[in-house]
Amino acid sequence: MCRHFAYVGDPEPLGTLLVAPPHSLFRQSWAPRRQRYGTVNADGFGVGWYADGDPVPARYRRAGPIWADLSFADLARVVCSRAVLAAVRDATAAGADGEAAAAPFAQGRWLFSHNGAVTGWPGSLADLAGALPPADLLALEARCDSALVWRLVLARLTRGESPGQALVDVVQDVAAAAPGSRLNFLLTDGDSIAATAWGDTLWYLTGPGRRTVVASEPYDDDPRWRAAPDRALLVADRTDVLLTPLKEPPA
């Protein structure tokens, strides 16, 4: 389910990043090339981006397919940004949350997306959810697995964990509580990207110049694209990508 994308680098129009490439996120909404689960990502979409001088990102989210939104076409043509996180959604289960369930989720300077699914939802995460303060549960944007996973990540970020460590800890907790879950996460603060590959595809592209793209699948056939191994943490900025293997949680 889902395809997502993150970029940090020199300012680019949203359309150049998300629409123009031959296998862009826009096209992946109906014709993904490497999607292992689901076929069409038409259950909502969202884009978050950062403007110069403002650390808090803007978001544009809708409940319908990205190809049907003419307002997004205008937005993508004129808005430029140095950092972007976007996603197209294939819902795991039917629900009434609409655009509230569409990534990116946000808080302060953070943008977050989850590509995958939690097995046994919602019962499998009852203990993890119960450990959160009631105010955090009431603040959930939607009643879906991705919204709860984001709240678990945010709780760790708020306690001072690094982006990469927060993602790893939540992957380990969720994988232990719900074995077989697919937990590909993307997280950015506008300067760097942290991501996990856990059960689905993750690719990255660096250069030329000061730019890095991390995505569910390549948006073109540039031979410099590299696949992250499964069970890995990726941390990147404009020029460097660091990959760290992840272990399965204890049985």
UniProtKB/TrEMBL annotation:
What top-tier enzyme class does this entry carry? hydrolase
* HAMAP family xrefs: EgtC (MF_02036)
Question: Does the keyword Hydrolase feature in the UniProt annotation?
Answer: yes
Entry-linked InterPro entries: EgtC, EgtC-like, EgtC_Actinobacteria, Gamma-glu_amide_hydrolase, GATase_2_dom, Ntn_hydrolases_N
Q: What is this protein called?
A: Gamma-glutamyl-hercynylcysteine sulfoxide hydrolase
> Which molecular function terms from Gene Ontology are attached?
hydrolase activity, acting on carbon-nitrogen (but not peptide) bonds, in linear amides
Report keywords, A-Z: Glutamine amidotransferase, Hydrolase
Biological or metabolic pathway of the protein: Amino-acid biosynthesis; ergothioneine biosynthesis
Question: Could you tell me which PROSITE patterns the record lists for this protein?
Answer: GATASE_TYPE_2
Gene for this chain: egtC
All copies of domain Glutamine amidotransferase type-2, residue ranges: 2-251
Matches recorded under NCBIfam families: ergothioneine biosynthesis protein EgtC (TIGR03442)
Spell out the Pfam families in the cross-references.
GATase_4
Q: What does this protein do?
A: Catalyzes the hydrolysis of the gamma-glutamyl amide bond of hercynyl-gamma-L-glutamyl-L-cysteine sulfoxide to produce hercynylcysteine sulfoxide, a step in the biosynthesis pathway of ergothioneine.
Recorded catalytic activity of this chain's protein:
gamma-L-glutamyl-hercynylcysteine S-oxide + H2O = S-(hercyn-2-yl)-L-cysteine S-oxide + L-glutamate
One of the protein's GO biological processes: ergothioneine biosynthetic process
